[in-house]
Amino acid sequence: MGHLKPALPVALDLTGRLVAVFGGGPVTGRRLRTFLAEGAVVRLVSPWACEEVQDLLAEHPDRASWLQRDYAGAADLDGAWLVHTATGDADVDARIRSDSDERRLWCVDETDALASRASVLTSTRVETPDGTLTVAVHADGDARLAATVRDGIDLALRSGDLDLRRHRPRETGWVALVGGGPGADGLLTTRGHELLASADVVVIDRLAPRGVVSRLPASVRVIDVGKTPGHHPVPQDRINEILVEEAERGHGVVRLKGGDPYVLGRGGEERLACEAHGIPVEVVPGVTSAVAVPAAAGIPLTHRGIAKAFTVVSGHEQIPTLPPGTDHTLVLLMGVSTLRDTTRILIDNGRPGSCPVAIIERGFLPDQRVTLGTLADIADTALFRRVQSPAVVVVGDVVDLAHS
Ligand code: SAH
Predict the structure, then answer these.
(1) End-to-end CA gap in the chain
(2) Which residue has a Cα nearest atom 11 of ligand 1?
(3) 394: Cβ below 6 Å to ligand 1?
């Protein structure tokens, strides 16, 4: 069994504190980046510096200085709170280490990790709306083991599997408008998962990804404001009020919406309502069904030689203003109930009745169904097959590329 060196993990706030750094190679570059990101003042002593180090020095002229020479003795440690050496010359590093010891300064010696009494731990962090969460790993000098464990923890932090909710009361809460994607769990962003793991309250839509919602811890309060066709939806004003009220009670609130919050999702209104009450809001984009659901049926919205542009619409008022060519792809959201009128107006405005059309119901969900036809016959086919919302309608030549 190896002999373990005692090591106490400690968190240092380096803001405004001087770190004396020796050596100009890539190891120094990595650390320099960290120290500067932590707000430290850095003084580099080294006869040369690699490109990364030079760039970092140039980016932070206010907090980084460079004495372009060799280590000149203990006076080079003056004023430092922490010392970092990676000169590549073991003798020089050892001298810097022992001079630091004499001055009771902590010295990280990258060249001889075993002799060094201080080390910078491999770490990962998540920015939650309540602050930064950092997890650091000490593996007794085994950098690869530390990185493996760090990566495992990183995965857990970002997957939403770890409950990151805060246990200290907050003065004010926060709201995050999170785009949930078209319904499949895998299409929610990592940032979305991180925020869900930090939320006390989750306000969901009918189209929010249900799998993700079902795995939330039981103590997370889920408020369903979902609209089912034919049922009374919670009015938008009331949804805005719920977000504001919950945040004002000090809760962290995720508003989990289908697709992208800013694509026919009234996300802009929700953000403005929160901001009007001084509540901090983060908006996390989502994979919009307008683009993704056609892809679930194998339909690219643009394709070399077939279509160069697409338009997303949610009603028919705009149709007369759209390019009529079948090489301009049209995507209709919320278009099922008005499909017959829409196809008629499209034909009246110059699109050929033979133009291909696809309807993709419940894209990315287990019961996804695709109905193909033309502008002339799709309304009848949809009626016959009892096509229902939610569905995305795609009109244009690209429909011919659909999976058969
Ligand atoms: N903000 C959402 C769109 C909300 S409007 C987004 O960016 O995706 C609601 C419409 O989105 C539905 O009527 C339907 O046209 C479409 N939609 C959303 N999810 C869908 C899915 N999984 N399958 C098919 N259509 C979907």
Answers:
(1) 61
(2) 333
(3) no
Structure-derived torsion over alpha carbons of residues 275, 277, 278, 281, reported in degrees to the nearest 10 = -40
Condensed to tens digits (0 to 9), the pLDDT of residues 45-89 reads 999 999 999 999 999 999 999 999 999 999 999 999 999 999 999
CA atoms of 171 and 390, how far apart (whole Å): 40
- Closest ligand 1 atom to 333 CA: 15
- How large is the C-alpha radius of gyration of the chain? 29
Q: Give SS3 for 27.
A: helix
270 lines ligand 1 (CB under 6 A): no
Q: Which residues of the chain are modeled with pLDDT < 50?
A: 1
Give residue 263 CA to ligand 1 midpoint distance, Å.
9
Task: Name the residue with tokens 């001889």.
Answer: 112
Q: Which CATH number fits domain 174-287: 3.40.50.300, 3.40.1010.10, 3.30.70.1230, 3.40.50.10330?
A: 3.40.1010.10
Q: What is the pLDDT of residues 290-310, one digit of tens each?
A: 999 999 999 999 999 999 999
- Check if 332 has its Cβ closer than 6 Å to any atom of ligand 1: no
Q: What's residue 243's pLDDT?
A: 97
Identify the H or E element spanning 177. Answer: strand 174-179
pLDDT at 226: 84
Does ligand 1 have an atom closer than 6 angstroms to the CB of 182? yes
Number of H helices, E strands in the chain: 11, 17
For 291-401, which CATH superfamily applies? Answer: Tetrapyrrole methylase, C-terminal domain (3.30.950.10)
Cβ atoms of 181 and 209 within 8 Å: the answer is: yes
pTM for this entry: 0.87
CA dihedral 235, 240, 244, 245 (to 10 degrees): 0
Specify the CATH architecture of the domain 18-120: 3-Layer(aba) Sandwich (3.40)
Q: Which helix (H) or strand (E) holds 176?
A: strand 174-179
